[in-house]
Fold this sequence. Notes:
It is a single chain. The chain has 159 residues and is an alpha+beta fold. 19% of the residues lie in helices and 30% in strands. It is built from 2 helices and 8 strands. The strands form 2 sheets. It has a 5-stranded antiparallel beta sheet with strand order 1-2-3-6-7. It is globular and about 45 Å long. The site of nickel (II) ion has 5 residues, from helix 2. Residues 90-92, 132, 136 line the site of nickel (II) ion (NI).
Amino acid sequence: MAIRNLRLEGDEILKKKSREVEAIDEKIQILIDDMIETMHKYNGVGLAAVQVGILKRIIVIDLYDDNGPIVLINPIILKEKGEQEVDEGCLSFPNQFAKVIRPAEVTAEYTDREGKRKRVKAKELLAQAISHEIDHLNGELFIDKIIPGTLEYVESEEK
Ligand code: NI
């Protein structure tokens, strides 16, 4: 496994649309492992492949609960319900946080890393994370949908 370089604010790749994964081969498995390691290294809740420079529809999410990291390949949102106003950041925008409106509930379908098609009904932080990460796959960034006047810069402390 390896830490991959994060693509940061201003990098044009972040505005591009990612392509469907056609086969979950060895290369994709290594990419997924690296994405999880990179997300953990920077204490992120989620990471999309485009954020490490790969335009493929893969996201990883870890809420640091008992479920461990989850991997969503070719995810699609089937249904969204309600709204929640949340504090949000993004590993591509270090130290920046703002309030965003996300759906309160998201039902999504995706392929897991074993190739099985699955469905998840998410609420709260998981709904927020799925919504944020699927936006990345479509070249959409949280910074473009923040509630005006809520952007804050918070210096992270080195460990
Ligand atoms: Ni992000």
